[in-house]
């Protein structure tokens, strides 16, 4: 058994967890979810879902991870020996790998678009660039491969030299980049219509389906129910404040999502494009915007660097869940675990990539391969994992053990523990069940 690593400081914990949360869910998924679900009204529901639903699940995952000091499968074996709970751990080893398979395809889009930006491909007519790219065979596959190789490279360096060092450098850079790009976008003629769309709620847009989408986005954005928070928390030292670290992570995640919204929506309205464009919103509309700007080539490079870095900070946490399992449960080396799992993810991801081109006619339950994995993971596996984690912490673990973790042995959060525990035990499970019911209906 290899000696287990830990994060070196409180700042490292917060940056690593924020890196896991901040990713394509913020800069790619959040803007098009806002566009499809009515703008500011959706944002208010999303904010409520993060605070009341997502944050308690975050605390629950973190409590399991640090209490056990183990990977997701080992955590359940250790805290619930001889029970079926270990299979929940196995589920949350598989889920992030499935999610990474299609996530890395979108990460590959960012790789390719960064290359296009660096070669000034957005200086002319940009119509058809995205559809032609994703429907081709080799170009998106190569980009998918490059993105996974970058992810694996960070994981191979370990927790402190890889994950911690990478997030310490990239997280501050991400916020600086997104702020610079936002200031550029707000100078575009017509951009303030996009600002109004983000800040003036139309409450008639709120429906059960929109509410479920807001809850689902909160899950996706904070990387909940898939063991990433649990795994990172297992590298936390015992004197770290879980509630404080989780709150800072959620705040960083929300702030970055809102900043991304203020980058994308003003640009979309300035271009006269429908905000409900869908999953391709960022990749279809932003090249047009860059082609219209005097400094568009520079802004394009900055923007796609931002997307790529954000994607990588999340993808390394997804792969780390499986790597930690293989190292600790199977006795494999970090190198062997990383390479084997990355290869498996690559194969599934290749099928997702090809589903926009040569495999477009292949359907699973009426959905293309990419869309099937996206909906299966986002709408079902992630909420299921979150539900099981909250039930485990709220109803299976001893309350004294939960209190010990969430108060760091009584040093922090003693006055608010009761409220946090109530949210974990009662509110979060009910909210997740509501997500399931709504998904079944719609």
Spatial arrangement of strands, main beta sheet: 1-2
Q: What is the C-level CATH assignment?
A: Mainly Alpha
**Strand-and-helix sequence, N→C?**
HHHHHHHHHHHHHHHEEHHH
Largest sheet: 2 strands, antiparallel
Tell me the CATH topology.
Answer: Hydantoin permease
The span between the termini is 47 Å
Could you name the ranges where pLDDT drops below 50 across 5 or more consecutive residues?
A: none
Please tally the helical runs, counting DSSP H or I stretches of 4 or more residues.
18
Count every beta strand, where a strand is a DSSP E run of 2 or more residues.
2
Protein described:
- The protein has one domain: Hydantoin permease (Orthogonal Bundle).
- The protein has 442 residues and is an all-alpha fold.
- The mean pLDDT is 87.
- The chain has helices at residues 10-21, 24-36, 40-68, 72-79, 86-118, 129-134, 138-156, 159-185, 191-199, 208-221, 228-233, 242-270, 281-292, 296-329, 334-354, 369-396, 399-406, 417-441; strands at residues 363-364, 367-368.
């Amino acid at each position: 058994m290899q000696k287990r690593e830990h994060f070196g400081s409180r700042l490292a914990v917060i940056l690593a967890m924020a890196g896991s949360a901040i990713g394509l869910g913020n800069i790619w998924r959040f803007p098009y979810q806002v566009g499809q679900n009515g703008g500011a009204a959706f944002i208010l529901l999303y904010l409520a879902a993060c605070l009341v639903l997502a944050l308690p699940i975050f605390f629950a995952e973190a409590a399991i991870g640090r209490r056990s000091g183990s990977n997701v499968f080992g955590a359940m074996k250790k805290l619930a020996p001889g029970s079926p709970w270990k299979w929940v751990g196995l589920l949350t080893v598989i889920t992030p790998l499935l999610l990474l398979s299609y996530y890395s395809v979108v990460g590959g889009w960012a790789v390719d678009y960064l290359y296009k930006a660096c070669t000034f491909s957005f200086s002319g007519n940009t119509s058809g660039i995205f559809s032609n790219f994703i429907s081709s065979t080799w170009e998106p596959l190569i980009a998918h491969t490059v993105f996974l190789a970058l992810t694996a490279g960070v994981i191979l360096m370990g927790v402190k030299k890889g994950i911690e060092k990478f997030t310490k450098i990239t997280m501050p850079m991400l916020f600086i980049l997104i702020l610079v790009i936002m200031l550029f976008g707000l100078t575009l003629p017509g951009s303030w219509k996009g600002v109004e769309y983000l800040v003036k709620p139309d409450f008639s847009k709120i429906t059960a389906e929109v509410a479920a989408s807001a809850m689902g986005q909160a899950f996706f954005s904070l990387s909940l129910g898939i063991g990433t928070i649990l795994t990172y928390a297992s590298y936390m030292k015992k004197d770290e404040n879980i509630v404080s670290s989780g709150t800072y992570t959620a705040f960083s995640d929300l702030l970055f999502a809102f900043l991304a919204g203020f980058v994308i929506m003003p640009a979309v309205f300035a271009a006269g494009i429908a905000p409900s464009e869908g999953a391709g919103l960022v990749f279809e509309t932003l090249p047009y915007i860059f082609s219209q700007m005097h400094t568009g080539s520079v802004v394009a490079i900055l923007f796609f660097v931002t997307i790529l870095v954000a994607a990588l900070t999340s993808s390394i946490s997804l792969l780390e869940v499986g790597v930690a399992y293989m190292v600790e449960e199977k006795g494999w080396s970090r190198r062997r675990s990383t390479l084997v799992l990355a290869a498996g993810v690559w194969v599934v991801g290749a099928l997702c990539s090809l589903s926009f081109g040569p495999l477009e006619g292949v359907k699973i339950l009426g959905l293309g391969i990419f869309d099937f994995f996206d909906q299966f993971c986002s709408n079902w596996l992630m909420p299921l994992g979150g539900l099981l984690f909250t039930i485990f912490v709220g109803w299976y673990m001893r309350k004294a053990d939960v209190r010990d973790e969430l108060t760091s042995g009584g040093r922090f959060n003693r006055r608010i523990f009761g409220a946090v525990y109530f949210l974990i035990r009662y509110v979060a499970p009910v909210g997740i069940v509501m997500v399931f019911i709504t998904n079944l209906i719609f």
